[in-house]
């Protein structure tokens, strides 16, 4: 399944176009490599998403669901 569609189906991101824009902006990574919206997700992948003021790290399970490993709030007021 494509990354942008996967994020929408699992309700991480509301719209596929937003998932596309985040990927193109380099906000979605795997092993410190930026992913394209067309990346084919596989079970076992660990993906990082920087979304507004949050960083979400999750693992893709065998049935293409997500297991959230970590959710970090990023404060820009330092």
What topology emerges from the helices and strands here?
Layout: H1 3-9, H2 16-24, E1 28-30, E2 33-34, E3 46-51, E4 54-60, E5 66-73
Provide a quick synopsis of the model.
By secondary structure, this protein is α+β, with helices and mostly antiparallel strands. It has helices at residues 3-9, 16-24; strands at residues 28-30, 33-34, 46-51, 54-60, 66-73.
Describe this protein's structure.
With 78 residues, the protein is α+β, with helices and mostly antiparallel strands. It is built from two helices and five strands; from the N terminus they run H-H-E-E-E-E-E. The chain has helices at 3-9, 16-24; strands at residues 28-30, 33-34, 46-51, 54-60, 66-73. The protein has a five-stranded antiparallel β-sheet with strand order 2-1-3-4-5. Helix 1 packs across helix 2. The protein is globular and about 35 Å long.
Order of strands across the main sheet: 2-1-3-4-5
CATH architecture: Roll
Within CATH, the superfamily carries the name RNA-binding S4 domain
Tally of individual domains: 1
Beta strand %: 25-35%
Order of helices and strands: HHEEEEE
- How far apart the termini lie comes to 39 Å
Q: How many DSSP-defined strands?
A: 5
How many helices? The count is: 2
Unreliable residue runs: none
Q: Which term fits the overall shape?
A: globular
Q: Helical content, roughly? A: 10-25%
- Structural class by sheet pairing and helices: alpha+beta
What's the gyration radius in Å?
A: 12 Å
Provide the CATH topology: Structural Genomics Hypothetical 15.5 Kd Protein In mrcA-pckA Intergenic Region, Chain A
Most strands sheet: 5 strands, antiparallel
What is the CATH top level name?
A: Alpha Beta
């Amino acid at each position: 399944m494509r990354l942008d569609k996967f994020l929408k189906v699992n309700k991480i991101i509301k719209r596929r176009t937003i998932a596309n824009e985040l990927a193109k902006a380099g906000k979605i990574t795997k092993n410190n490599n930026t992913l394209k919206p067309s990346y084919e997700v596989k079970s076992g992948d660990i993906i990082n998403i920087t979304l507004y003021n949050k960083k979400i790290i999750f693992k893709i399970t065998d049935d293409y669901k997500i297991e959230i490993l970590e959710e970090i709030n990023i404060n820009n007021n330092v």
